[in-house]
Amino acid sequence: MTHLGAYHNWVEESFPDEMAAGIRNRHLWRIDTLHGKQYLLVLSDSQPNPQKLVTYGVEGTVQIKSYDRFLASLVQGQTMRFRLTANPTYAVMQPGSDRGKVYPHVTVQQQRQWLVNKSAKAGFKVLGQANSDGTDNFTFDVVSRERVPLHRKSGRGIRLSQVTFEGQLKIDDLELFKQALTQGIGREKAFGMGLMTVIPEG
Question: Do 7 and 192 meet the contact criterion of CB atoms below 8 Å apart?
């Protein structure tokens, strides 16, 4: 498992009924490292096949849980701890084209501002405020930044910007927030980006 494409295939193959029917549902996923061990988190509308999901994992470690009860417990104005691995980008319109060319945000400040901008459309506010000198005191951090290989190719190949944020948020629009949790935030969701997990505070 040396590139994001391999993980993407693993996740997709964990839903054999969908593949057999030619259904292409979106499955959010993320690799987390906790206490020296790696965990694959998957969020989906239907249950994956446990045996397929453990193909490259450790036998007996697959856990499948419903998300519905947790989503139903969320309330407007609630504060939470969050973790999000995303692909912060921006688009520049090209002459003669209806679509812009996509570029990654490269500095920590740009990446932090990307999340602040995304938060309004995702139904939450990150706590804190921007300062007039371009810095901020938002209560979240960029805990990792890397360029990860998309596919196994000779030479440099294609790499995606992968940034992990952790911090505090407040639910500002409950329905938009639930939508962000279940549909993801930002680009490259098929390749391990966009899944935000939250833990209520208090």
Answer: yes
pLDDT attached to residue 25: 86
Q: In whole angstroms, what is the distance from residue 82 CA to residue 112 CA?
A: 14
Query: Average of pLDDT values for 1-15?
Result: 92
**DSSP label of 48:** P
| CA 192 vs CA 65, 98, 129: distances in Å | 19, 27, 29
**What is the bridge-based pairing of β-strands 159-171 and 140-149?**
antiparallel
Instruction: Compute the C-alpha angle 110/193/140, nearest 5°.
Output: 45
The 3-state DSSP class for residue 85 equals strand
Cα–Cα distance for residue pair 114/27, rounded to 1 Å: 23
Residue keyed to tokens 């935030």: 185
State the pairing for strand pair 89-93/140-149: unpaired
Q: In this predicted model, what pLDDT tens digit does every residue of 20-71 receive, in sequence order?
A: 888 888 899 999 998 999 999 999 999 999 999 999 999 999 999 999 999 9
Find the angle CA(191)-CA(127)-CA(167) to the nearest 5 degrees: 45
